[in-house]
Each structure stands twice: as C-alpha cells, then as structure tokens.
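During the second year of the project, the team shifted from modelling isolated chains to modelling whole assemblies. The rationale, set out in the original proposal, was that interfaces cannot be judged from single-chain predictions alone. As a representative example for this report, we include one of the complexes processed in the last quarter. Its constituent sequences, exactly as entered into the pipeline, are reproduced here:
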Amino acid sequence: LVIVLDFGGQYNQLIARRVRECGVYCVVLPYTTPVAELKAMNPIGFIFTGGPNSVYEETAPRVDSAVFSLDVPVLGICYGCQLMAHSLGGQVTAAREDSAREYGKTETFYDAGCRLFKGLPEQGVSWMSHGDYMARVPEGFTLTAHSAACPNVAIADEARGFYGVQFHPEVGHTENGVAMIRNFLYEVCGAAGDWTMEDYMKTSIRAIREKVGDGKVLLALSGGVDSSVCAALLAEAIGKQLTCVFVDHGLMRKDEGDEVESIFAQRSANFIRVDAETRFLIRLAGVDEPERKRKIIGEEFIRVFEEEARKIGAVDFLAQGTIYPDVIESGAGDAAVIKSHHNVGGLPDYVDFKEIIEPLRLLFKDEVRQLGRELGLPEYLVMRQPFPGPGLAIRVIGDLTKEKLDTLREADFIFRDEIARAGLDKGINQYFAVLTNTRSVGVMGDGRTYDYTLALRGVTTSDFMTADWARIPYEVLDRVSVRIVNEVAGINRIVYDITSKPPATIEWE
Ligand code: XMP
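Output from the structure prediction step:
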C-alpha cells in the first residue's frame, strides 16, 4: 500500500491513478490523518500531493514531522516537495516574477544518478505550476534536476528515500512522468506490483453477494460508463434482486435514451425507464446560471427517482456508481471548487433503504472501464466518451428551451457522425457541440438571417484534468460545418474552440 497524502491540489487524484496504473494499490488520505493511523496501515511509501497554498503562510496545511521518522520513503510533488523541504529545515520563498516562477511546459534537465530518474532521458519537458521557490534545500539533500529558470527543480536524499519534484510527474504533459513514479514505487519503495482487475472483479462479486444476501438492491442508471458498469456488476452478482431505474431527463444526446433501454432491458430483469423530460424543462425554464442549472437538475433527478422508489417500496440497499475520484473530490482534500459535479453528494431523502452500496468506490475511471470489459460489456459502451450528468443543459449556454435542445441535439449528432466517419473517434477523447447564446447576421440565399452560433469542441486528454484542443483536419471541420448549416435550422455560424484546459475547461458551463 502506498499512501497519497492530499494537500488539496487539482491533480491529487491523478497521482493515485498513476500509482495504480503501475500495478500498486494506493489510497488518498487527507493531510490531517494522524501519523499513528498512517503508520498502522503499514505503507511502503508516501506521496505528498501539490496544493494551492504556500508553505510559509501561517495557515498552510502542514504535516506532523513524525511522518519523516517512520523509515518510509516519501515523494513530494510541488507543494508536497516544498512542504518536505520546509519541514526538514530548508527554506521556501515566493519566486520573483522574472526568476523561478514557472507555469506550463518547461524544458528540464535530470541527474540520471538519482533513483527517481534512473534509466530515463536526461532532458525532457515537465509540467510546472508553482509560484514558490526552494531558496535553501534541507541538509542531506542534493539537487537532482534543473531548468533554465530554476536551479532546484528536484531534490533527493537517497539515504532516507526522500524525493521532491517541483513539477507534476502525474500530468500527461510531463515526459516520462509515469516512469518517474514507477521508479519511486519499484526502485525506492520496493513495490510488488500485484494489483489486477480480474482479482478485483472476483473479490467484489463475492463481497456483494455476502453483503446483500437475499436482499433487494435499487440502482439509478444513467447510461454513463460508471452506472452501467455498476449495473452490470450487480446484475452478475445478484441477478433478479437488482432493480434499475433510468430517469430520462430529456437532456441526453440524440437517440441515447433508447440505446440505454435496449442494452439494459436485456441485462437487468427489473429495468424501469421514466420519461421526465417535461418536468425537467419546466424547472429549468428561464435559468441561465450554470451552477444553478446543475443544482436544479441534481435536485429534480432525486425527486423523480424518489417517486419511482416509492412505487417499488422498501429495498435493502441503494446502489451508487460512485467512483474514487468522486470520493476524493467531495471530501478528502480541499481542492478549489471549479464546477460542482451533480452526481455526488445528492442522496435521496425518502427512498426506503437500509444501506448504501458503492461497488466502484475504490476504482478510477480506466479501472471502471477495465472492469466493464471483464464483465463482457461491449467496447462502445465501456469506451463511451464522458457525458456530464446535467447533460445538454450545460451545453446550451444561457436559458434552455426544448427547441434549443433539439437544435443542439441535431448539430451534435452530425458532428459526432462526421468524426466517426473520418475514423477520428478513437483519437479524440471528448467531442461535442455547444449552442452559444450569441446570434449573428448571416446570408442564406438572398435573405438575411439572424441565427445562433454553434461552437464545436474536441479535446485530447488522458485524465480530463488537463486537455489540449484536438487538431481536427480542416476537411472534416468543413464537412461538419456545411452539413450543420444546411441540415439544422437556427444555426448560421460555426466556430471551433481552440483553447486548452487550463485555462479553459472542457465544457463551456
Ligand atoms: P470540465 O468542464 O470541468 O470537465 O473541464 C471535465 C470533465 O467532466 C465532465 N463534466 C461533468 N460530469 N457532471 C458530470 O458528471 C457535471 O456536472 C460535469 N461537468 C463537467 C466534462 O464533460 C468533462 O469530461
């Protein structure tokens, strides 16, 4: 077990994911976890995450320095690195604008003699995001990497197994970042690397059967990857004891509700689809603020689900497709809230159940997909691109109407269709259309039009925490544009979003 100690960074869960990808089990715990508790878990290593604070601030999150006396290796990342330096007697200060303050891709030079960089190229791009600087490193440490602007990008105390890096090895933009984490796990911590998905599936089916006994389980199925895999896992484990309720809020993409029904009506003996489009539209009428939309959809979803659950009557368990990032995001740390994701935290009040069951609670997204494959779900479902819980409501900018949703649905369908036809669907991790609230003047035939602008968004990313805009060939964009303005009424202008994340987010709202 490796413990990732969370100091509230935006990338904290990515670190844990990378560790698991390396075949090593890990958990993320808040930095406030008492050292005695950490010690009792018998970890082979610690990773301290980044975080938004500066260690020299009085209110900055600290760690009990007893953690450095457990004889367990530590890898500190960004804030975690500065914290380690600060705790062990080094000095961290704010970097001056023109010196060691770095953001984004940075050419970095590594000392191959350091165990962290063993066997890796001595030069490469790393992803930086820090405004602080280690002015003095603690005793026993040496400098093991540098960039043009910063002499101390990485520090190491090989004897004690303490390593610190200012950059983010967990982020895809850092070349060989995962290999560095792997080096820490295998070269420094001596990990065995025995975490596999097949074991996990068997163990969790056994655990579900044991826990549920002959009880009844109720699940809200959205048709997304998580709830689908959750449904498939439960169906495999307990068969007819499972009831799936699919709340169709009318904010899905074209034909999607029917697809969900056709897959799960077969797999689950008790599958119920509720058509709730009208009530969602009524609640959302005139609402243009994104967080408000999310809140309303989350609440209404629960109300509809509760009504259905009342009809079903008492059940023993309520199942949720909560996955590990949700667990970490909604409590363990204190990362700044950029957007509230509606599928967490909202528990139905009036459903008559005894206990919650969350069979995917410890899995990251790729692990959930892998589990779906083990369960025999079709590849297109397992690899379905992410779709936000609030659906198309947050892809119609400003207030919603059924008409705007239908316009968006048609345009989005054409975009996805052309991407698939061009064979680009595997290479682009998420792509969709956004109906903006900007109208502009156009000309069609001999007439003036004053219609909406549609934005197309396509991103490549491995983690959805950072993303680059997809370089879709002009010919494909051209086909999409021509088809949409000709086939979809109400749109006379099409733009392509060329911002990465950060500074933009993937969705527009
Ligand atoms: P952003 O826009 O924050 O999106 O860069 C990152 C990923 O999260 C998805 N997303 C959501 N998913 N409920 C969800 O279940 C939400 O409210 C929500 N908002 C964004 C988004 O599609 C992208 O994959």
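Residues 298 and 342 are 5 Å apart (CA to CA). The pocket of xanthosine-5'-monophosphate is lined by residues 294, 339, 341-343, 386, 388-390, 430, 464, 501, 505-507 (CB under 6 Å).
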